[in-house]
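Working notes for the structural subgroup meeting. M.R. asked for a predicted model of this chain before we commit to crystallization trials. I am recording the input and output together here so anyone reviewing the notebook later can reproduce the run.

Input as submitted:
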Amino acid sequence: MVLFTMEGVTRKFLISPRTVDDPMVKDGLEAVSLLNETEPYYLVGGIATQSYLPTRCRRETSDIDLCLVKPLSYHTFKDMISPLEGFLQDKGYSVDTRKGSRAFSLNFISPDHRSLTIEAPKRNINNIEKHRRRLEREFENSRTKIIEGRDGSYRVTAPEDIAVPKLVRVMNTLVRSPYLGGSLPVELEPLSDEDIERKLYKISELRAEAMHNPGDIQLAERVRFVSDLYDIRILSELTGFNEAYWREAEKDWDSIGNEPKIRNRVLRVMLPTFKEVPIDTREPSTSKGNGSVFPASILI
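Returned structure, recorded in token form:
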């Protein structure tokens, strides 16, 4: 999963979001299932999150994110998705492929002009070798999910491997935009059916505003931030995390170890049963990106 690119975030707000209950998403997942016997892939991101949740808790998302444990050029991407294109065309969709700065995408459009994207990050051999341990671990611990109401299945990353990258992205966002620390709850919040409905409505309203203001970078960042917080919290509540495996996953993300105060601040109100990591209090934590010291409102 690409942790944060404003180009990608603002582009996604141009596409109407959906859940795995949507027949179009199920068609996309059926297409992805054609890779089951040929490619070392698994799903990440919003669709992966939804796969662990009941319908009432699913947060809408705009694409199907693939992760592959192999180098991926545009040529190899085109070869890989050729059978997916044929499958979707037989379903009545028009298709096209695109080459972005960080990812390749297969876009399919229905006769009534609804669209959805299947996306995979570009990777060269050096990138694969750099992240091989993490990618292989995530693949080995991925799960098989049935496409509801269909015959096919697809692979999805483990809950811990959804939440830990989201924690990293939350932390990086707080480094970049400390004012968003005000969106963190001050204590663990309950998650009744009404609370879940309220949180999803708030995210939907923010996303709708972002769709009407695609150039508003701060708004796009806020939507991503509150969405990641929701996903971590709802997965913790309904799916649960294996703390030992969570610790193992954290080791593959250097920024978590670099900023333990922010990590502890977030998990204190997201996963209160998890142990906090030790903090060296001799010097304040600083951002390597801009040299600023994190405000106390984030760290305490």
